[in-house]
Design goal:
Helices cover 31% and strands 26% of the residues. The longest helix is centred in the middle third of the chain and has 38 residues, at 474-511. The model is unreliable at 1-78, 230-234, 270-278 and 830-836 (pLDDT under 50).
Length: 871
């Protein structure tokens, strides 16, 4: 570069240079370009008759900003034409030298007396430069710069860099302010400036300047992209921002002591899968930034990162990152995706994970069942390019590899294969799709590693490189083999867990009701949502059990724990509740019986080595009577049910909170609540209300909102409950059961009091037959007459107190006889010589179902028979 092209302070592009005007011996400088500002300050350095009274208005701070020192001999020059060192002269419109400073005398040897009043052309050595100078004097408008050769007073030539700026003087005359600099010295200054510019703008050294208020005033590009907070931010500090605590602490130390501390710190790796962000060492230093007057104006902060210099360290860091991300979940898909995210872009430009289809089979894998020739399914792939141009198959599709491919050979041998990819690679010729994609993309090497654990092949991992020019080497092979080996164990664990989870889920679904019965007492709907696959199948269950007298039992329970043991225990408890419900026990008595069962199961579990040590459950049991229009509830450590009334707010009735099942020795209590027809009774497990950030109060509020307007369809209410109360992946099993109550009208029930006289049997038969005629059920008169006769006769003969008879027309025809005796009749086989003992036997033969339930006043014997239309 010539001296003419190295001048600093040229007019800024887009700004028109403005001349200086000399009025009354003062120079007024127009601040429209750096040239005019510079010339205004340079003029103050002149000596001579015409410049003795020149004074320049000095804008505060501009001299330092432009690199000009206002004090003679003040410091090192910051620009090649610093006013303290530059040779300056002034030339009038006739080309006569009108001013000459000491620096010009030192540079060329001529005193002011030698040159003042003489033409400026007498200084130039080469005649070829004279026309240029003359042209400048005649036609140059505002500024002029070029290299020139000038004759020193001693007779030797001197190469100079010249800059000239036009001035307007009094009377409209043109004058020129000329600055001279030794060309060799200028080139040296430019070289130092290029070094400084590269150091600040292009080097990896981050440099920033902070003011005394500890705010960034200037940052270079390296610092602007430096993560000073250690959080993986894409951009670093910006001008005006506050520094990080460590930078602020070091800057305060500098301002206080004036010393320049140096700190060396280890930066922990940022754990972001898929990013090559290993741990590194950071060297940082701060030092005071002083002005020309010696006062500290701020702090300069420099940072240098040492990263990626040690392959062994990078390998350990990557393995450490892999251990934190691979194997943290028992979800198979998430495990293989974590492996892919670790590989790209740290190790490869593309990675694909293909698993044998037998891995997803429900049976246990063996070396025979996991054959290397089995179909492969693509379960994950990741690329440095979003469109994944190297992927030949989509996720979930079958990956067809030729028999000679490294993938099939690796599966067959169980050994990794490193292969150079060329257009002439034999196996690629048999796979045109992959040949086109890999060759067009420029893939140069691939690494294939079998996914193998416990001597069983489960799949293969393929890695490709094309963006990274370095082929896979032995170190890469060792690293990838280690990573894939760790992932293989996690994949096998996830596969085993998934198989066990599926078995538990299948068992649980087989134990839950497959469909709800169609009852006249209630219309019911339910939802069962298993927990996240990592939590395991729980022991939630629900049930709708028809009872005698057109009543219905609603049950929801929850077994403690997860997994196949919880599912099996749930099935045992559900069967027990169904059996006890057939005995028509009140809710509190039924829970007492179930509590005893749970205690026995707990004892059995503790006595066995493979059973769960802790066994417990919660349950709520409710009986709804459509004739009395009441619901009787009892609960054992379970959330209280909710009742959504048609004409009122959602109610959480005060049902006594009994202890969880399995504690023993504590009583349970029932509560009877009147319920109008059309109301919604909601029973649920705790997973429903605790899913709202584990805040039960919020869960109850959302449940009230979901149950509002109970006249909506039940499926719509269920969907609303799921949407409002549950996240996408609930952390616990959730089961809930909602039932809309119905009521039996008075014309479907007929009841009479029966006297304890033998003649009352005939009267009861006649009333029953008459009622059947009203209902249009004459076809059932014979059977009903026989059942009524036997039940009333037994009550008169064996019971005491008031006797009542009730007929109920529902889906079946129900006959009930109640008395005050607690003695339960038993069916027996009478001998041929006995005159009695055959009544219950006949009822059992004629009725569809029969039984006894106990009440607070005594007992009720009932018998059901199908309606004639269904016979």
């Amino acid at each position: 570069m010539s001296a003419a092209h190295g001048f600093i302070g040229a007019p800024s592009r887009g700004h028109e240079a403005q001349p200086a005007r000399v009025q009354g011996g003062a120079v007024q400088v127009a601040h429209r370009s750096n040239d005019q500002v510079a010339c205004g300050f340079i003029a103050a350095a002149f000596s001579g008759p015409r410049c003795e009274n020149v004074c320049v208005g000095r804008a505060r701070g501009w001299d330092d900003a432009m690199g000009f020192s206002s004090e003679a001999g003040g410091g090192d020059p910051l620009t090649p034409f610093d006013m303290a060192t530059a040779a300056l002269l002034m030339v009038d419109s006739h080309g006569v030298i009108a001013a000459w400073n000491q620096a010009a005398q030192d540079l060329l040897g001529y005193t002011a007396a030698d040159v003042l009043g003489h033409s400026v052309t007498t200084l130039f050595l080469e005649e070829g430069d004279l026309p240029a100078v003359q042209s400048w004097l005649r036609g140059a408008e505002n500024s002029w710069k070029r290299p020139l050769r000038v004759l020193h007073r001693e007779g030797r030539p001197v190469e100079l860099a010249v800059r000239a700026c036009r001035l307007h003087a009094v009377g409209g005359h043109r004058e020129w302010l000329v600055a001279l600099r030794d060309a060799a010295a200028l080139r040296e200054d430019e070289w130092h400036e290029d070094v400084a510019r590269s150091l600040l703008q292009q080097s990896p050294l981050g440099v920033a300047v902070l003011d005394t208020d500890l705010r960034y005033q200037w940052v270079n590009p390296a610092m602007a992209h430096l993560d000073e907070e250690g959080c993986g931010a894409a951009t670093g500090p910006a001008a005006g921002a506050e520094p990080s605590p460590i930078v602020a602490r070091q800057a305060k130390q500098v301002l206080k002591s004036g010393q320049a501390p140096v700190a060396l710190e280890n930066i922990a790796p940022i754990r972001v899968p898929g990013r090559e962000d290993a741990g590194h060492v950071r060297l940082r230093s701060s030092f005071p930034l002083s002005g020309a007057d010696g006062n500290v104006r701020g702090v300069c902060h420099a940072v240098l990162d040492f990263q990626g210099q040690d392959p062994a360290r990078e390998r350990l860091t990557l393995l450490n990152t892999a251990s934190e991300h691979i194997g943290t979940t028992l979800d198979l898909d998430r495990t293989v995706h974590a492996l892919a995210e670790i590989m790209v872009p740290s190790v490869a430009d593309f990675v694909a994970v293909d698993l044998l289809e037998s891995v997803h089979a429900p049976m246990e894998l063996t070396t025979r069942s996991a054959d290397s020739s089995d179909p492969l399914c693509r379960v994950a792939h990741l690329s440095i390019q979003e469109d994944r141009p190297e992927a030949a198959v989509e996720i979930g599709a079958t990956s067809h590899y030729p028999k000679e491919s490294p993938q099939r050979r690796s599966l067959a041998t169980g050994q990794p294969i490193r292969e150079v990819v060329r257009p002439s690679t034999p196996w690629l010729a048999k796979d045109p799709l992959r040949w086109t994609r890999l060759i067009r993309l420029g893939v140069h090497t691939q690494l294939v590693v079998p996914l193998r654990a416990r001597d069983i092949n489960m799949g293969v991992v393929t890695l490709l490189r094309w963006k990274n020019p370095r082929p896979f080497d032995e170190d890469d092979l060792s690293l990838v083999t280690d990573l894939v080996g760790r992932a293989a164990v996690s994949v096998d664990n996830a596969r085993r867990y998934t198989r066990q989870q599926q078995a538990a889920l299948t068992l649980q679904q087989s134990l839950l009701p497959q469909d709800l019965p169609d009852l006249s007492a209630v219309e019911a709907a339910y939802r069962y949502l298993p927990a996240d696959s990592e939590v395991g199948v729980g022991g939630d269950w629900f049930d709708v059990i028809p009872l005698s007298g057109a009543r219905v039992a609603l049950v929801v329970g929850d077994v403690v724990g997860h997994g196949i043991h919880a599912a099996a225990s749930m099935g045992r408890l559900r069967a027990a509740v169904q059996t006890l419900a057939d005995l028509d026990l009140p809710p509190d008595e039924l829970l007492t019986k179930v509590d005893d069962l749970v205690l026995r199961l707990s004892d059995e579990a503790e006595a066995t080595s493979d059973g769960p040590v802790v066994f417990g459950a919660t349950c709520v049991y409710a009986i709804y009577d459509p004739i009395a229009r009441t619901v009787t509830m009892a609960r054992a450590g379970h959330p209280t049910p909710a009742i959504a009334h048609l004409d009122g707010p959602v109610e959480f009735p005060d049902v006594p909170a009994g202890p969880p099942l399995g504690l023993g020795g504590l009583p349970f209590e029932s509560a009877e609540i009147p319920v109008e027809e059309g109301s919604i009774i909601a029973l649920y497990t705790d997973g429903l209300i605790e899913a709202s950030d584990r805040d039960v109060d919020v869960g109850f509020e959302r449940l009230c909102f979901a149950l509002a307007h109970p006249d909506r369809p039940l499926d719509e209410i269920c969907d609303t409950m799921v949407r409002i109360l549950l996240p996408d992946r609930p952390s616990d099993d959730v089961a809930f059961l909602i039932a809309r109550t119905r009521a039996l009208s008075s014309d479907s029930v007929a009841a009479w009091d029966v006297s304890a006289e033998p003649s009352a049997v005939h009267e009861a038969r006649e009333k029953s037959v008459s009622q059947l005629e009203v209902w249009g059920l004459q076809a059932a008169a014979f059977t009903t007459e026989l059942i009524v006769s036997e039940l009333v006769t037994n009550a008169i003969r064996h019971a005491s107190g008031p006797i009542s008879l009730r007929l109920i027309r529902e889906h079946t025809l129900i006959c009930e006889v109640s008395d005050t005796s607690s003695t339960s009749p038993h069916m027996r086989r009478a001998s041929g010589t006995e005159e009695g003992g055959r009544g219950l036997f006949l009822i059992a033969q004629m009725a569809q179902r029969w039984g006894t339930r106990y009440t607070a006043e005594g007992k009720t014997i009932w018998a059901e028979q199908p309606l004639p239309a269904s016979l």
